[in-house]
Amino acid sequence: MSILAINEQLLRAIGVGVAVVRASDLQFVFHNGPFREWFGTPDNGSTLSDVLSDLDPKELEDVKQSGLRYSVELQIKPKRRTLIFAVTVSLASGLSEQVLIVECQNITRIRELESMIDSYSTMVERNTRELEREKERVERLLLNLMPRAVYEEFKTFGVVTPQLYQQVSVVMLDFVGFTDFAAKTDPTVTLSELNDIFTAFDRIVEQFGCERIKTIGDAYLAVSGMPDPTPDHATAVAHCAVRFLRYLERRNESHPHKWQARIGLGMGAAVGSVVGIQKYVYDVFGPAVNIASRLQVFANPMNIVAPEEMKYALIDEFQVSDLGCVDIKGMGEMDLINVTSGLSMPQSSRSF
What we know:
It is a single chain. 41% of the residues lie in helices and 30% in strands. Strands 6, 7, 8, 9, 10, 11, 12 and 13 form an eight-stranded mixed beta sheet that branches. A five-stranded antiparallel beta sheet has the order 2-1-5-4-3, with helices on both faces. A hairpin with a 5-residue loop joins β1 (17-22) and β2. The chain has helices at 3-13, 33-39, 48-51, 57-66, 108-145, 148-157, 178-184, 187-207, 233-252, 287-298, 311-314; strands at residues 17-22, 28-31, 70-76, 83-92, 99-106, 163-175, 211-216, 219-224, 261-275, 281-285, 303-307, 318-328, 332-342. The chain contains eleven helices and 13 strands. By secondary structure, it is an alpha+beta fold.
């Protein structure tokens, strides 16, 4: 078998369509099996431009003149399916007559795979964005249940270690006559009223760097000094208490129901931790919470009562008057003070 016959056999065997055309008139000299399978058998006298009409004549002329390769992707649709080919045209030199070598490779599958990869990438990106949005929603929900520092600990370790805070202050508010109001009023109206008021309280608490812990029915509990230590925790909760009452006074001027509230302040130790394993709730308990809870009972409507030990922490910014000694259940006798609006403007706000 001659070398020429061997070369032709090799060209027929490979999965690349190959054709040889004269450079002068672009008529075919040779074409292998894959080329004929894809583009049909060229008729006698037909040219490369007749078979591959999408080839750019100017680019072919440049190949003949400069010898540079011309590469292009062509699409044909022999039946229902569109096939994509990578076509390269190069000039063969050193022969008696200049010829152009046309190499065609079916890259349809490659492009389909690329399209599938792009589709999967788009789907993955979309799912990733949805997961990010879901993560943000979960984070916002958890931040409504616990302070950010506690949330960060929970996110990192999966648990929250109970911590004892030696000096924190607590403000607890309870509405007067709420039980009767709730019994006589449409539940949606009651809920709307509480939601409106507690939303305003949340803003006040945030303004003074305190942390809303929870609401229990009509009771509202916030702390200062935990989980991050705050030296002016006593004045922070007192400012919150004064602003709570001021807000209610102004709200009562334009709303049919006139809300009255009692407020108790407490100062001392408290423990903070996440309670529960299914419905996570960040809760605080300890002497400071108990004092605030018990003292709000001794406050007259729209008044604030605090233990005397908070007096020297508040006296520079609030009007403080002695209420005397009171026997408190479970705590014994305790000197109480009444706290009214501040003598000076509140300090600049802080936030967690």
